[in-house]
Amino acid sequence: MTGDTRLPAHLEIGAMIKLAEAQGGIATVLSKGERDAGTILLVTISRGSGGQLFERMPQLDGSRAFVPTKSQDIEKPYDFSEYLDRRRRQDIDIWVLEVDIDDPERFVAELPV
Fold first, then answer.
1. Which of 1, 51, 80, 92 is most buried by its number of CB atoms within 10 A?
2. Residue ranges of the chain with per-residue pLDDT less than 70
3. Residue 93 · residue 13 · CB < 8 Å
4. C-alpha neighbours within 13 Å on the C-beta side of residue 112
5. In sequence order, which residues have a C-beta less than 8 Å from that of residue 52 and are 6 or more positions away?
6. pLDDT score for 4
7. Within 13 Å and on the Cβ side, how many CA atoms surround 55?
8. Cα distance between the two ends of the chain
9. pLDDT in the model for residue 2
10. Enclosing domain of residue 95
11. What's the angle, vertex CA 15, arms to CA 33 and CA 19, rounded to 5?
């Protein structure tokens, strides 16, 4: 979706939760943002570990795809959560959705752009 056709953030979050559940995963809203226009951050984990942060970024064709922007470092596990906390403090309208799912790459690939 591009331009004015963007779904309100709360509806997009709801759809992402349903997709995660349909794929046998669990989704948890870690932070609620602005109902209609809030930015969405997606954290994927698999079986409780291996955190990967995805953010929607504009693409050359005008779409907005989720791209990986940060990975959890096994040797510095708190850096990841501290980064998310900083982002929430910087933007109170931000949504953070965590999805624990067996195949995070497949899940992200199935999200609409």
1. 51
2. 1-5
3. no
4. 12
5. 43, 44, 45, 68, 70, 71, 72, 104
6. 54
7. 10
8. 6
9. 45
10. 3-109
11. 125
Q: How much is the pTM? A: 0.89
Sheet with strand 40-46: strands edge to edge:
26-31, 95-100, 40-46, 49-58, 64-71
Strands (DSSP E) contained in 22-92 are: 26-31, 40-46, 49-58, 64-71
Counting the structural domains of the chain, the total is 1
DSSP code for 102? S
Which CATH number does the domain housing residue 101 bear?
Answer: 3.40.1530.20
Q: How far apart are CA 34 and CA 92, in angstroms?
A: 8
